[in-house]
Amino acid sequence: MQTSIVYHSREMENISFRTTVLPLSDRLFRLALRITMNRAEAEDVVQDTLLRVWEQRSQWEQINSLEAFAIATCRNRALDVLKRAGRNTKSLDEVDDVHSPMPNVQSSMEAREQISLVRQLMDGLPEVQRTIMLLRDIEGKTYQEIAQALGISETQVKVYLHRARTKIKEGVKVKMES
Fold first, then answer.
1. Predicted confidence band at 93 (pLDDT cuts at 50, 70, 90)?
2. pLDDT at 8 > cutoff 80
3. How far is Cα 79 from Cα 89, in angstroms, rounded to an integer?
4. Is residue 6 part of a domain?
5. What are the pLDDT digits (tens) for 140-165?
6. pTM for the full model?
7. Which residues of 132-156 are buried (b: 16+ CB within 10 A; e: fewer)?
8. Could you tell me the CATH number of the domain that includes residue 142?
9. CATH number, domain at 4?
10. Are 116 and 35 within one domain?
11. Count: domains in the chain
């Protein structure tokens, strides 16, 4: 009887990992790719992140948000990869597109230039502001989730996001006026 309880407990951990953690793989990959700007390194970071989350399975019940924990682990691991390699992030234009190009053939040159400008401006932001913009504006995370993932307060998240958006808007405005 006790053997079946142990087996059942392990089975529940596997199901929890499968249903809660594995679906985060795409988000983790996009975050890791945005930081490392290298597909192979991003894949390694995601695998390492998933392994680290799995290794912490005995503490999952004490973790408020497993998703925030996974994001924070992924971010920290990706930053470690950059530090170890002694390099900064590249421009988004230097990396293969993560998503397929838009099928709209009528996309104007102006729209492409604006996207390129926003990418350049985002590349110029401090790393924490870039990460917060990515998590909030691209991934749709809440302020609370971002705060947990980065280990900062929600107020700090809002301040960093406001500053980042302001810099982007000002940069676009300056470019459009010239």
1. very low
2. no
3. 10
4. yes
5. 889 998 999 899 999 999 999 999 99
6. 0.57
7. bbbbbeeeebebebbbbbbeeeeeb
8. 1.10.10.10
9. 1.10.1740.10
10. no
11. 2
Nearest to 23 by CA among 53, 55, 56, 60: 53
Range of the domain at 79: 1-90
Assess whether pLDDT exceeds 60 at residue 30: yes
Query: Does 95 map to a domain?
Result: no
Half-sphere exposure of 27 (CA within 13 A, CB side): 20
Give the count of beta carbons closer than 10 Å to the beta carbon of residue 57.
15
Average pLDDT over residues 68-95: 74
Look-up: residue for tokens 């089975």?
11
Cα 158 to Cα 42, 141, 148, 149: the distances in Å are: 27, 12, 13, 14
CA separation for the pair 67, 27 (Å, rounded): 10
Q: Residue 16 CA to chain centroid, in angstroms?
A: 22
